[in-house]
Design goal:
The structure holds two protein chains of two kinds.
Chain A lengths: L13 H7 L1 H19 L10 E2 L5 H4 L1 E2 L3 H8 L3 H19 L1 H12 L3 H16 L2 H11 L5 H8 L11 H29 L3 H9 L4 H26 L6 H7 L5 H4 L2 H11 L3 H30 L5
Antiparallel strand pairs in A: 1-2
Helix pairs in contact in A: 4-16, 5-10, 6-10, 7-10, 8-13, 10-12, 12-16, 13-15, 15-16
Chain B lengths: L1 H22 L5 H18 L13 E5 L18 H10 L2 E5 L6 H11 L5 E5 L8 H8 L6 H7 L1 H7 L7 H8 L12 E6 L3 E6 H7 L7 H15 L35 E4 L2 E4 L4 H15 L19 H5 L5 E5 L6 H5 L6 E3 L18 E3 L2 E5 L6 H10 L3 H9 L6 E4 L2 E4 L1 H4 L7 H8 L6 E2 L8 H10 L17 H27 L4 H14 L2 H15 L6
Parallel strand pairs in B: 1-2, 1-3, 4-14
Antiparallel strand pairs in B: 3-11, 4-10, 5-8, 5-9, 6-7, 12-13
Helix pairs in contact in B: 3-15, 5-19, 11-19, 19-20, 19-21
The chains are: A mainly alpha, B alpha/beta.
Chain lengths: ~300, ~550
C-alpha cells in the first residue's frame, strides 16, 4: 500500500535493514509462517487440476489427464451458465454493495447528535456478527411463501408465492440481504478515513461559500478517495470469487439458473460428487481470471490516479 | 525500556510456540488410550466373552457412522450413549470410537474424510453413499478400502455360515447381493431375519375423509378431488407432501404413469422393463406426471415450498404432520400407526391407501421391493491396522448374543428371551418415561442387527396386512432395479455423467411443477439438455451393470 515512487526503493539492502529493525522483523515471522503454511504450500495442490485425482493414490499415483478437466468444463453444460451468473452477481455486488458502506459512512458523518450516531452504528454492525447460517435462515424464512415479506406483498395486492424460490427475484433478494449484512461493518474503515480529513479544509470551503453537498463532493470524497480506490482494487481481485457460503444457503434447484456460480459449482462437484481434479481445474481457472483482473485494475489505477497496491 | 523489550520478546516467543502448536496436529489419543486400557481391563473382568472372541486388552476400533437424528425427548446424541453399543463393548472388551458427522451431512463428510486420507477402521453406512466415489469396486482399486473376500474364510466363520449356506434365503442370492462387479466383497450387510415386503406406501387422513364423506382415493382423479377438499375445507396448505425432487423415497407416486420419478437418489430414476433399462425423465409418462403435478401445484394442493425441504419423508419432522397442513404423504409402517400419539393431535388418523393409478384395477410396478439384505453395512478401510482383529470383531457381531443385543438392547433391561426368541419388554413397548415404542427403540437398540429382525417393533395384524397385502397385491415391483454391478471405470463415468444429469433433472422438474417453465413449451429443451449431458451413455452403462449382475461368480 505504498505510492509507487521508484527512487524510494533504490539500493535497498535487506540484510542491513534486518539488522537495523530486528524486532520488527521478528514480529513479521508468525505472519510469514502463516502465509507459507496456509497459502503457499497448498498452491502445490493445483497440479491436481491436471489429473484424474484419487486421494488414495495421491498426486504422484493418480493418472495425468493434462487439460482434459478444463476441456470437460468448457464443453460441459454448465460452464456458460456459472460464468455468466458469477459475473452478473459480481457486477451487482460492485455496483450496489460496494458503494453502500461509503454512502452510509457519508450520511453518518453528517449526523451531529453523537448518541444517535452511536446507536445507528451499533445496530448496523449487528447483522455482521450473526452467523451466515442463521442470517440466511432468516432471509429464507422472511421470503418463503409464508414469510412476513411475502405477507406484506400480498397485502399490497401481490400473489402469494415463495419469493426465495423464484428465479426472477433471487438476485434482488441476494443483493439487498447482502447490503443489510455488510453495510454497517463495511463502513468502519470509511469512518476511520473520514475522521482523518483535515477540519481546516471544511472551514476553508465554508469561507468560499460551499454548501453541505459541495463540501462532501469537494472535500470529504477526495479525502477518502485513497481508501476507496484501495478497497476497490482489492475487491476487483476477488471479482469472480462470489461468496459461496450465502448462495449455498439460499439457493434451491428452482433458482440454480440464476444462482449457481463457479464457487457453488466447485463445491457440488468437488465435495458432493468427489470429482476433485475437475473442481480444482474449475477453481484454478477462476483464480487465474481473478489474478488477471487484479493486475489489470491495479495498472489502470496507477495510470489514471497514480495510486496502486504494488 | 530494557524490561519492556524483554517482556515483548517473551510474549513473542510464546506466541510463536502457540502458533507452532496449532499447526502441529497434536495427538490427543495418547492419554485417552491409557485411560481406555485401564477401563478395558476392568471390564473384561466383569463379563466373560466367549473364548473364541478373546480380543487383546485395550483393543479399539474407530467406526464412522452418520450422526443420530437428535430427538430431545430421547436425549441421545451419540452412539456411545446407546445401550446396545455399550453392551457390545462390554461383551467383547473392544472399545468403540464412533466418528459421527452431524445428521444430514454425511455426503460432505464422507468426501472430506476420503480426501483427507486418514480413514477410520470401519465405516457403517449406505452402499449408495459410495456411488459418488465410483462405488466399492473403484474404492478397492484405489486402495482406500479392503476386499473382505479373502478374510471371510479365514477370520469370519459365523458370517460365512450365513453367507455360504442356504438358510432363510438362497446362498446364491445373498452372495450376488453382496458382491461387486469383479466378484469382490466390499461391504458386509445385515441379512434380514425374514423377507420383508414393501414397508413404504401412501397414507391419508382418514378422519378428514370420514368427516367430508369421501372415499379413499384410488385413481389420480380421486386424489385430485380428495386433496382439493382437504385444501378448501380443512385448510391444508400442503395437502400432498412431496420431497424436493417432486417424488417420494423410491418414486411410488408416479408409478401409475409407468415410470418411477426421481425418487430420493440418483439411481431411483432408472427402471427396467423386461431387462431393458430406462431413465424416467426421457419417458412420455414422466411428462404427463409432471404436467399433473404442475396443475395441482397451481391449485395449491402441494406444499408451495416443497422444493426447499431436505427430508426424505415428511414424517422425519413430525411438526409438519402435527401442523395439520399435510393430508397425505408417503410413510413407513414403522411410523404412521404412531402419528396420533407422537403429535398428540386428537382424532388424527392416518390410514394406508393403495398406490395411485390412472385407471381402477391397474397394476403398478414400482415399490419398495422385498429385501433380503439391508442396503447398508460394514466397510473396512485400508488404514485399518489390525485387520484380523477388526474382522473377528465383525464376525463376533454375527453370534446370536450380539445379534440380539443390536436388535433389542440389553437382556433383562430392554428385552427378554421368550421361547428362545428375543422380545422387547415394557421398557420399550410401554416406556415408563412416556417415550413411544419407536423412540424407545432408537434409544436402546441399533437401526439394524446383523440378522435384522424387522418384526421386532411388534406390528399389529392390521399394519402387517398393509405391508403384506394392501401395498403388495396391486404392485409387482417389476420395474425396480434391485441390483446392478458396475466396474470401477463404469462407476466413475456413470457417477460423473449423472452428477450433471441429476442436477438438471431436479432443477427442471421443480421449475415445471412450480410453473416457472411450461411443460407444453419447454419440455423438449429439457430433454435435449440431459441428452447433451450424456444420459444415453449412462443408461448404456447401467444396462451393462444390470446384465452383469446375474452372471456374478458365486461360490
Amino acid at each position: 500500500m505504498k505510492h509507487t515512487k521508484k527512487n524510494a526503493v533504490e539500493k535497498f539492502n535487506l540484510i542491513r535493514d534486518i539488522k537495523k529493525n530486528k524486532l520488527l522483523y521478528l514480529f513479521m515471522i508468525p505472519v510469514i509462517v502463516y502465509f507459507i503454511i496456509f497459502h503457499y504450500v497448498p498452491m502445490a495442490g493445483i497440479v491436481v487440476a491436471f489429473e484424474k485425482y484419487f486421494p488414495r493414490k495421491g498426486i504422484f499415483g493418480s493418472q495425468w489427464v493434462w487439460f482434459k478437466n478444463f476441456e470437460n468444463f468448457f464443453k460441459g453444460a454448465y460452464a456458460g451458465r456459472v460464468i455468466k451468473n458469477t459475473i452478473i452477481i459480481s457486477v451487482l455486488e460492485i455496483v450496489f454493495s460496494f458503494p453502500a458502506p461509503i454512502i452510509f459512512a457519508l450520511l453518518l458523518n453528517e449526523v451531529k447528535n453523537a448518541k444517535f450516531k452511536k446507536v445507528v452504528q451499533t445496530v448496523s454492525y449487528m447483522p455482521h456478527f450473526i452467523s451466515s447460517v442463521v442470517f440466511c435462515g432468516l432471509v429464507a424464512d422472511f421470503c418463503s411463501s409464508r414469510g412476513f415479506i411475502t405477507d406484506f406483498i400480498v397485502m399490497l395486492g401481490g400473489t402469494r408465492q415463495s419469493l426465495i424460490g423464484n428465479a426472477d427475484y433471487f438476485r434482488t433478494i441476494y443483493t439487498i440481504s447482502g447490503i443489510w449484512q455488510t453495510v454497517g461493518y463495511g463502513s468502519i474503515i470509511y469512518m476511520a478515513a473520514l475522521s482523518g480529513v483535515d477540519k481546516e479544509l471544511y472551514e476553508a470551503a465554508m469561507l468560499d461559500g460551499a454548501n453541505r453537498l459541495q463540501q462532501t463532493w469537494h472535500v470529504t470524497l477526495p479525502g477518502i478517495a485513497n481508501t476507496i480506490v484501495m478497497l476497490f482494487i482489492l475487491r476487483m481481485g476477488s471479482f469472480l470469487t462470489v461468496g459461496s457460503e450465502k448462495l449455498l444457503l439460499l439457493y434451491a434447484p428452482s433458482t440454480y439458473e440464476v444462482a449457481d456460480v463457479i464457487s457453488t459449482y466447485v463445491y457440488r462437484k468437488g465435495i458432493l460428487d468427489a470429482d476433485f481434479g475437475y473442481s480444482t481445474a474449475v477453481n484454478l481457472f477462476n483464480s487465474v481470471i481473478n489474478t488477471a483482473l487484479l493486475i489489470l485494475t491495479n495498472k489502470i489505477s496507477r495510470k489514471v490516479s497514480d495510486m496502486s497496491l504494488f | 525500556m530494557k524490561g519492556l523489550k524483554k517482556i515483548a520478546c517473551l510474549l513473542l516467543a510464546m506466541l510463536m510456540i502457540l502458533s507452532m502448536a496449532a499447526c502441529n496436529p497434536t495427538n490427543p489419543t495418547e492419554k485417552e488410550t491409557e485411560k481406555q486400557t485401564e477401563k478395558a481391563t476392568e471390564k473384561t473382568d466383569e463379563t466373560e466373552a466367549p473364548t473364541e472372541y478373546q480380543f487383546p486388552e485395550g483393543a479399539e476400533i474407530s467406526i464412522w457412522m452418520e450422526g443420530i437424528n437428535y430427538d430431545p425427548q430421547v436425549g441421545i446424541s451419540t452412539r456411545s450413549e446407546m445401550l446396545c453399543w455399550q453392551t457390545i463393548e462390554e461383551m467383547f472388551g473392544v472399545k468403540l470410537n464412533f466418528i459421527e458427522p452431524a445428521y444430514g451431512t454425511k455426503a460432505d463428510a464422507l468426501s472430506i474424510l476420503l480426501a483427507s486420507n486418514e480413514l477410520p477402521d470401519l465405516f457403517y453406512t449406505k452402499k449408495a453413499d459410495f456411488d459418488a466415489h465410483g462405488g466399492l469396486d473403484s474404492l478397492i482399486e484405489q486402495g482406500a478400502i479392503l476386499d473382505f473376500g479373502e478374510y471371510i474364510d479365514e477370520y469370519m466363520p459365523n458370517y460365512a455360515s450365513y453367507l455360504y449356506q442356504d438358510g432363510t434365503f438362497k446362498s446364491d442370492d445373498l452372495q450376488r447381493a453382496t458382491m461387486t462387479a469383479t466378484g469382490k466383497i466390499g461391504m458386509i450387510s445385515p441379512i434380514m431375519k425374514t423377507e420383508q415386503g414393501p414397508w413404504l406406501g401412501y397414507v391419508v387422513r382418514q378422519d378428514w375423509l370420514d368427516e367430508l364423506g369421501l372415499e379413499q382415493p384410488v385413481t389420480y382423479d380421486d386424489w385430485h378431488e380428495v386433496l382439493t377438499a382437504f385444501k378448501e375445507q380443512k385448510g391444508a396448505t400442503g395437502a400432498l407432501w412431496l420431497n424436493a425432487r417432486g417424488s417420494d423415497q423410491v418414486g411410488i407416486f408416479g408409478a401409475g404413469y409407468d415410470i418411477t420419478g426421481l425418487g430420493s437418489t440418483v439411481a431411483n430414476a432408472f427402471f427396467q422393463k423386461d431387462g431393458k433399462v430406462y431413465y424416467s425423465c426421457l419417458e412420455e409418462g414422466y411428462k404427463n406426471y409432471i404436467a399433473m403435478l404442475a396443475q395441482w401445484y397451481s391449485e395449491g394442493l402441494i406444499d408451495p415450498d416443497f422444493y426447499t425441504s431436505t427430508l426424505i419423508r415428511c414424517e422425519k419432522d413430525m411438526s409438519l404432520i402435527a401442523s395439520g397442513k399435510v393430508g397425505a404423504c408417503a410413510s413407513s409402517i414403522n411410523y404412521f400407526p404412531n402419528y396420533a400419539t407422537t403429535t398428540g393431535v386428537e382424532g388424527m388418523n392416518f390410514q394406508p391407501v393403495t398406490y395411485p393409478v390412472l385407471e381402477e384395477g391397474q397394476t403398478t410396478h414400482v415399490r419398495i421391493v422385498n429385501t433380503i439384505i439391508c442396503d447398508e453395512g460394514w466397510v473396512i478401510s485400508a488404514d485399518c491396522e489390525n485387520v484380523e482383529m477388526v474382522c473377528r470383531w465383525i464376525d463376533a457381531l454375527w453370534t446370536q448374543e450380539a445379534i440380539d443385543v443390536l436388535n433389542f438392547g440389553k437382556e433383562g433391561v430392554t428385552y427378554e428371551i421368550v421361547n428362545g426368541e428375543a422380545q422387547f419388554n415394557d421398557m420399550v413397548m410401554n416406556n415408563p418415561d412416556g417415550l413411544t415404542k419407536y423412540q424407545a427403540r432408537t434409544k436402546y437398540a441399533s437401526t439394524a442387527g446383523m440378522v435384522y429382525d424387522w418384526m421386532r417393533d411388534g406390528f399389529t395384524e392390521e399394519v402387517l396386512n398393509t405391508q403384506n397385502h394392501l401395498w403388495l397385491d396391486t404392485n409387482d415391483g417389476a420395474y425396480v432395479i434391485v441390483n446392478k454391478s458396475l466396474t470401477s471405470e463404469e462407476g466413475d463415468e456413470w457417477s460423473s455423467i449423472m452428477a450433471d444429469v441429476d442436477t438438471a433433472a431436479v432443477e427442471w422438474t421443480v421449475k415445471f411443477i412450480t410453473g416457472q417453465k411450461s411443460v407444453e413449451d419447454d419440455w423438449d429443451e429439457f430433454i435435449s439438455i440431459i441428452k447433451s449431458m450424456g444420459i444415453e451413455r449412462a443408461i448404456e452403462i447401467y444396462q451393462a451393470g444390470v446384465d452383469r449382475y446375474m452372471t456374478l461368480p458365486v461360490k
